[in-house]
Amino acid sequence: MPLTTAPDDDDDGAAVRRGALRALDQGLFGPGSVSWKVWAAPTALIGFQRAIVLEHLDPLLAAAAADSGGMYRNPHGRFDQTFGYLLTIALGDSRTAVRTAQAVTRIHTRVTGTDPVTGRRYSANHPGTQLWVHVVAWHSMLRAYEDFGPGRLDEAEERRYWAECATAAELQTCGPAGVPRSREEAAGYFARLRPALCTSERANDGMRYLLWPPLRAVGARLWAVSRVTAALTLTTMPDFFWRTTGFPRPRLTHAAVRACRPLLRLTMRLAAHPAPATALTSAIAPTCGHILRAHHAARPPLHPATLTPAEARKRYGAPRTREPAAVS
């Protein structure tokens, strides 16, 4: 995903031509936000892998992923672009965030079809599907940050994190209404959806591919990193993941990860410094590394303020439209 959109004739064109991640303003969250802290941490690599695996428990999303086939045709590029999109929303200025989100929504309008497992129609922009993707991503980032990073957020930070999660949802077709606003509400959301979650041969194949991509498909660097992150990712999976998929729990691996957790936290703390963080990320995901480098090197923007998604859309984007519900 591009970091910036093409300049136009408005007063901010010169700032956009600078090509900075936050040329115009401080984005949707701004300095000191919990989102910047969590999403820019090296634990985000683990959180992202967790999210894209768990997403496959939604049968409609699993069908969309399998039918489109992008992760099989270009797994490295799809990983880099999708993770880069999420980082752009969290770290970019408001124009970059809203334009990028609208571009992805337009791409998703072509991703429609019928799920062979349930017989239901799917649409990548369906509000329910987008809400699942959004909540799983933000929950996974927080879980990885807590398990392998600095630890649990304090009460005020956690409230702010979930409020920022709802803010980011305004860029999706789901909107913020159904977004959990606390850890407890997130648990309730997953409990409500649990009866509708299921798996299939295609979904299990997709999850295995995302956890352990083949060497020939992704190259040596991502192949090696994925083996390490998969071991960490699987220790964070909820009980319903194991019950639904039927995957055997790697108990010895889980025990080893728990024993090594203090060392892992220290490693992540060292890797959180800008130089190693961008070097590590760039080695396996060039677009994401470029975004992190721009984030850490960002100069004061043209307008030192944050904008709401509604303000950003009014100023920089097309009016927001909702995707009609898919036919069941």
From TrEMBL:
Top-level division of the source organism's lineage: Bacteria
Ranges of residues in domain ER-bound oxygenase mpaB/mpaB'/Rubber oxygenase catalytic: 36-265
Annotated segments matching region Disordered: 299-328
Name of the molecule in the record: DUF2236 domain-containing protein
The species this protein was found in: Actinacidiphila epipremni
Lineage: Bacteria, Bacillati, Actinomycetota, Actinomycetes, Kitasatosporales
